[in-house]
Design a protein that fits this description.
This protein is of the alpha+beta class and 291 residues long. It has a single domain, classed as 2-Layer Sandwich (Chloramphenicol Acetyltransferase). It has eight helices and nine strands. It has a six-stranded mixed beta sheet, with helices on one face. A three-stranded antiparallel beta sheet has the order 1-4-3.
């Protein structure tokens, strides 16, 4: 979604001008993002998910559950764009891009550094687009000697004495609240993205409820972990074993009402569990109607 910027818009979002008055007041009642955190948990059954992954791997694509999750969330945002809003400076905006921040271990060892990558997508993206962009970003950040722009910026900040670091962060927050933060800073900041995703299954543990950050514009944090096997009753009343995975989601409730969030989660859950629709672009892309 790209449109001409108007007065009051930000570089990374459009100000809501038709929102319900109640939602204009909420950011003043709960000015901080962690004041407004709500927690969701749901279980995904992976039979069709794994079937798609196996099929694409046979075709030569390198992918896992992370790729399906990201592609499913891009598709969900394309149909439920209001979950891609954010609140900054007690004002609500519709984000003008779809982006994901991911924490990546440079090597799978305790001593290896962790870095954060950010990947952007168009709302029409398919699973093929996600595989290409995510794999390229991960590969370019592997190796302990590799430093991306986010790593470099973090190192520069931490070289400052404590009082200067506090002053610098105060200014970053103040500029961000007014929409004056330079674009290069929002581009490299992992805290300015649609969603933050963490894969805890890669280190062998179950998902956690991860807080969202007051800094930046992240509205949703998704965590997933190890897979499970469980006995369920199918439609023919037979007991069968299915592979499943739990997702834990923390979201900023100020951007939209719970009913809308619940419907978005249903779309995401259905898409992850039946992901073959991700092979093709969506039939249509919905635009936030309150801009």
């Amino acid at each position: 979604m790209k449109k001409r910027r108007r007065f009051g818009d930000r570089k990374d979002g459009y100000k809501l001008r038709k929102a319900d008055p109640f939602f204009r007041i909420i950011p003043h009642l709960m000015p901080h993002r962690n004041d407004a955190q709500v927690f969701f948990e749901d279980r995904i059954y992976l039979d069709e998910t794994h079937r798609l992954i196996r099929q694409l791997r046979k075709d030569g694509y390198k992918l896992g559950f992370l790729h399906v999750l990201i592609a499913s969330m891009v598709r969900t945002i394309s149909q439920k764009p209001k979950i891609n809003r954010f609140v900054v400076g007690r004002k609500t905006y519709a984000r003008n891009e779809i982006s994901f921040s991911l924490a990546v271990k440079k090597n799978m060892s305790e001593d290896s550094e962790e870095t954060i990558i950010k990947v952007k997508f168009e709302p029409e993206a398919t699973i093929y687009d996600v595989i290409e962009k995510v794999n390229k970003a991960i590969e370019s950040n592997k190796g302990d000697d590799t430093k991306n722009n986010t790593d470099v910026a973090a190192k520069i900040f931490t070289m400052l004495p404590g009082f200067l670091l506090r002053f610098a962060m105060f200014n970053v927050r103040a500029l961000d609240n007014r929409g004056w933060l330079p674009r290069f800073m929002t581009e490299l900041s992992p805290f300015h993205a649609s969603m933050f995703i963490t894969d805890l299954g890669s280190i062998g543990i179950r998902p956690v409820y991860h807080h969202i950050y007051n800094l930046g514009t992240n509205t949703v944090f998704i965590s997933f972990g190890t897979r499970n096997r469980e006995k369920v009753i199918d439609k023919d009343n037979n007991i069968v074993t299915k592979k499943s995975m739990d997702l834990r989601i923390v979201a900023d409730e100020r951007v939209v009402d719970g009913y809308y969030f619940a419907n978005a989660i249903k779309i995401a859950k259905n898409t992850i569990g039946n992901p073959f629709c991700l092979l093709t672009p969506p039939e249509n892309v919905v635009v936030d109607n309150e801009i």
